[in-house]
Amino acid sequence: VFLAYPLHPPGKPQQMRDAHLPRVRVPMLWVQGTRDAFARPDLLEATLARLGKGAAYCPVAGGDHSFKVPARAGRKPAEVERDIAGAVEGWLASLEAQAPPSS
Q1: 50 burial class (0-12, 13-18, 19+ CB within 10 angstroms)?
Q2: Which tens digit of pLDDT belongs to each residue from 13-61?
Q3: What is the rounded distance in angstroms from the CA atom of residue 29 to the CA atom of residue 27?
């Protein structure tokens, strides 16, 4: 689970930190704020597309690198945290459901 992965330094999208990611051989869940200065949305989407079906994405609408959303969004931090926890829990449950039965 990648929580606010720093895909690039803020303001330096040319310095991508993604070269090693295709070598990851386990399912990945990316939880990222849509306003995260460390992961421009278009670059994150391109990275996820290259990673293929093994990479799931949970955007935090309006969230920054700390998942803080603007007050005008009407979501309290505890609500955002519950949403993130629920997304991670649901993703883990989906992996469990896909796993072959153990012997």
Answers
A1: exposed
A2: 999 999 999 999 999 999 999 999 999 999 999 999 999 999 999 999 9
A3: 7
